[in-house]
Amino acid sequence: MNPLRATAVKIGSISWMPNYLPQIVKCDSALQKVTGGRLSLLDIATLPNVTIRVPGRSSGVMRTTRLLAVPDGDDWLIAGSYFGGPKMPQWVFNVRAADSVEISRHQRTWTAVPTELDGDDRADAWQKLRTVWPNFDLYEQRTDRRIPVFRLRPS
């Protein structure tokens, strides 16, 4: 594992990290704004990621979120871990309500159909997610909620 990713994994495992997630998100948003969306903290950590755009389930306003994402063939896998915090990330509710999401990566944009995984499909996807971000197991231990896992399949 490269040193930047190893450092990110170490930082991500710190037990009090969920307390600072709002500040981390603000810092990451500022970095993305300054770089015109070309760079995020995930990029610095050499972690694969995508930007999803999905309409808000109540407002219909497009919401944009950069997420750690693991490629699986032409699909991408994402997990609503929120560092193992007690609350579900808001993007999860929007993705659950959407028929499709817009995905961007490296100045390429496409539409994908999100599917929330369960059973063996979730277990297989979870193992793939763990190979990139081993802290997912730790996050699962930190929270009482079931961390949702989605497959984003190009439409």
From TrEMBL:
Pfam families assigned to the protein according to its UniProt record, in alphabetical order: F420H2_quin_red
Catalyzed reaction equations: oxidized coenzyme F420-(gamma-L-Glu)(n) + a quinol + H(+) = reduced coenzyme F420-(gamma-L-Glu)(n) + a quinone
GO MF annotations, alphabetized: coenzyme F420 binding; oxidoreductase activity
GO cellular component, one term: plasma membrane
Family membership noted in the UniProt record: Belongs to the F420H(2)-dependent quinone reductase family.
UniProt cross-references to NCBIfam families, sorted A to Z: hi_GC_TIGR00026
Name of the protein in its database record: Nitroreductase
